[in-house]
Amino acid sequence: MASEKYDVVIVGGGPAGTMAGAAAASEGVRTLVLERDSTFGIPVRCGEGVGVNQLERFFAVDEKYVAARIKGLYMHSPDGTEVPVVSSEIGLVLERTRFDRWLAEFAALSGAQLRTRCEVDGLVTDNGSVRGIYFTRFGKRHKVSADVVIAADGVDSRVARWAGIPTQLKPADFESAYQFMLAGVDEEPGSCHFFFGNDIAPGGYIWIFPKGDKVANVGIGVSSKLCDGGTAYRKLKEFVRKRWGEPAVISEAAGGVPVARPVRQPVRDGMIVAGDAARHTNPLTGGGISAALIGGHHAGKVAAGAVKNGDVTSNGLKEYMSRIDKDIVKANLRAYRLKEGVYKLSDKAFNRTAHQIMALPAHKHTLRNVFLRGLVSQPKLMVDVIKAFV
Amino acid sequence: MRVGEKTSRTSEAPILVAVEKCDLCGGCIGICPTDCIVLTEHNLMIVGSECIRCGLCLPACPVGALTWNDGDVAAGQSTEAGDNGK
């Protein structure tokens, strides 16, 4: 078996993995990123919306991966009331195929080694400590020894579980999602729409993210707890037919979105878990790109620091916990409580909230006001609303 | 299991995968508590011996490609699989 040695090896070439690769390599440690598919960024399993602030924390936005700038957000209640929502945050609709490739280049330019078509299928362990991984490429098995393994292998993460980190999801903490990229649909570029209702998307929502040139991402997330298999596809298909008839489909994707509490202990001797694998997706919105970038960055920096300090035990890596606690965990626990609150709302409550908001002057149509009114029957959540939507 | 088969199963898998519907999205893998669903390069495989028949993967599938292996129930090999189904 071919055998190699790196300081840090990262499993997964999505935003968390490549960001971790860039962060670790820029600290001067030998870093390898392994991707299962043949190209970084493909297949796309994402609505592609993200906030500009989250990207600019790490790099200037490059127009080459921007499909559209978000100009307006519209929430639709079950009875069809459209509520324009004002938001101070500037959002983007990404071209994930280009964005992920750009991130891969960013990691490479930072000094990381990248490899595609590597299916990681085992851990190298020593007395319970993680000491590397095995991967298979073209039927041949390889071994990579590493001081730290970063598990950034997404929603279907297995690497963390191999190390004994429980990442199992309850059905209530798992959204089943389906998305079409449609062409020839007349939607205002940059106007994003969200549709709510227990018949439209039980325990979730339908989104429209127009990408310009009459192309739009139209997707659905539904709760696995409330739905049978196939619900996501059926409900979305129905929505598309009602709104546009039979538009051309450029691509379609299915996937799972964790809407869970973050993994409690994303650190083991010799291992850090980041991104969707650590369940860092925002449980309220299902958005995962920004948390993947932040978590990946911290994982890479902390791993590199631990290698240099010569202590890659969970104790040596625990700085990751305090870093993400501030940046991801607290906000996600809050979002989780809000998600639970929103889950309980009836269509009637959604409609009432929409009508109440529409009675306010336009500048008061903030997400904060939407949630304050929508969750008014759950006073315990008011503090969370106020903290979540500043 | 081979590509192109209508459904796939290992000998005792309580869950069937409709290969023509399966998108290989991995959603079921993310929710499986026993890690018994494995994504290989071209298909999804359920390792029957590790499956605890919890049924979590069924609603997790966005396209409805997973079903209980009712064949086993009909053959009298397993009843709880059918009872747990929706």
Low-confidence stretches of chain A: none
Shape of chain B: globular
Largest sheet of chain B: 3 strands, antiparallel
Rg for CA atoms of chain A: 21 Å
CATH architecture group name of the largest domain in chain A: 3-Layer(bba) Sandwich
Largest beta sheet: strand ordering of chain B: 1-2-5
What share of residues are in beta strands of chain B? 15-25%
Shape category of chain A: globular
Largest interface: A-B, 31 and 25 residues
- Main CATH class of chain B: Alpha Beta
Which regions of chain B contain 5 or more consecutive residues with pLDDT less than 50? 1-10, 72-86
What's the number of helices of chain A? 10
Strand count, sense and barrel status of the largest sheet of chain A are: 8 strands, mixed
What does the average pLDDT of chain A come to?
A: 95
Helix fraction of chain A?
25-40%
Strand content of chain A: 25-35%
First and last CA, distance of chain B: 26 Å
Properties at a glance:
heterodimer; A: alpha/beta; FAD/NAD(P)-binding domain; D-Amino Acid Oxidase, Chain A, domain 2; 3 domains; eight-stranded mixed sheet; seven-stranded mixed sheet; 10 helices; 31% helix; globular; B: alpha+beta; Alpha-Beta Plaits; three-stranded antiparallel sheet; two-stranded antiparallel sheet; disordered N terminus
